[in-house]
Amino acid sequence: MKIITNISLLVGLNTQGLLLRRGKQMQDIERIEDAYLVIDDQGKIESWGKMQELDLTHYADNKTLDIIQLEEGQVVMPGFVDSHTHLVFPAWREGEYVMKIKGMSYEEIARQGGGILNTARRMQQANEEELYVAAAERLKEVISLGTTAIEIKSGYGLSTESELKMLRVVRRLKETFPITIKATFLGAHAIPMEYKQEPDRYVDLVINDMLPRVAGERLAEYVDVFCDRGFFTQQQTERILEAAARYGLKPKIHANELGLTGGIQAGVKYKAVSVDHLEHVGDEEIDLLLNSQTMPTLLPATSFFLNLPFAPARRMIDAGLPVAMASDFNPGSSPSGNMKFVMSLGTLKYKMLPEEAFNAVTINTAYALEISDAEGSIAKGHWANLIITRPVPSFEFLSYLFAHDLVDKVFVKGKEWEGKAGKF
């Protein structure tokens, strides 16, 4: 058992049993100043309160009691939940970064065989062991930055064997890391060069070969499709989602990054858990989302890195929608898994209040992974997945100081994560 004491600010409490926060609710954050927090022997949150209410004699008979006393100014908050990443990849793409600097667009690079297709070629040459070692190092880093639950997609294989290889690496990460990891099959991430003239043949491959193999090995919880201009049409997306439903895979859609291309419509129609990107959203899309259970998930680091338009987050929240934000960590369009920076981008580029940005990277991203009943907020019985910050003067400072690592300690299921060495 652990008791964290002298917490200057305990933030992200969830006493109402909420699974998400929407619209004006996103401005609400339950908090206590000068607090304590009790973690039970199973690594779950037992109780909390004001320091003046803490009676340590109540725990006198507990032989495993560990009291963690904080310094003035330290904040305790839920760990970040990153609901959209491409963490498993064979190599970085810094060469394309230079091409972007010289003025080439993401779509132009993709048409020349760069982008996703570039990584796919390297993926076919990589073996599972080297992919696992590289991905494990990235995962250790993002945990050290405060991420305590994550989604990881395939999608750089674009062939049956390479897609399976990626998902097997994700399965191994699940087996060797203590954080919650959800796997998403994204075979429809791009159309391989050999299928450019007949993209429906590739869709057939995804449906008739990849999906049965993924389902047969139980390698994924979700299916994703890049439904956008130059990638997969709404009709092709719906074909894949219908087939995936027969195997029990729930949809999570790449939607409307490059235009109003029907990705949100397809996602809502097939009850997607989330629709992600959403740089282009109109009144029709907002109305559809308002009448659905689908979480709109924004990826501001991608817009930042690619100089794309930023999603209309302010308009969406003001309309009453919930909004989540994730990192989109990948080698081509968002080479960072730093969720604190994502939170800062929410305030700087989406004009979200600090409270709204905080909820967008904790409880709402947990909803986008269907784990908000156990993670993403501080509630009795939830896992003690926590960030303890360095001393800060205020809650607003967390998003204000955008380029600084303010994480002092990270707890995963009640155990301290010891830095980038990845030890407990």
Task: Describe the overall structure.
With 424 residues, the protein is of the alpha/beta class. The protein folds into two domains: 2-79 and 378-421, Urease, subunit C, domain 1; 80-368, Metal-dependent hydrolases (TIM Barrel). It is 34% helix and 21% strand. The protein has 15 helices and 16 strands. It has helices at residues 94-101, 106-111, 116-125, 128-144, 160-176, 199-216, 234-245, 263-269, 283-290, 300-306, 313-318, 339-349, 354-360, 363-368, 397-400; strands spanning 2-13, 30-39, 45-50, 66-69, 75-78, 80-82, 147-153, 180-188, 222-227, 250-255, 274-277, 295-298, 324-325, 386-389, 407-412, 415-417. The strands form two sheets. Strands 1, 2, 3, 4, 5, 14, 15 and 16 form an eight-stranded mixed sheet that branches. An eight-stranded parallel sheet has the order 6-7-8-9-10-11-12-13. Helix 9 (283-290) links the parallel strand 11 and strand 12. The mean pLDDT is 95.
Summed up, what is this model?
The protein has 424 residues and is of the alpha/beta class.
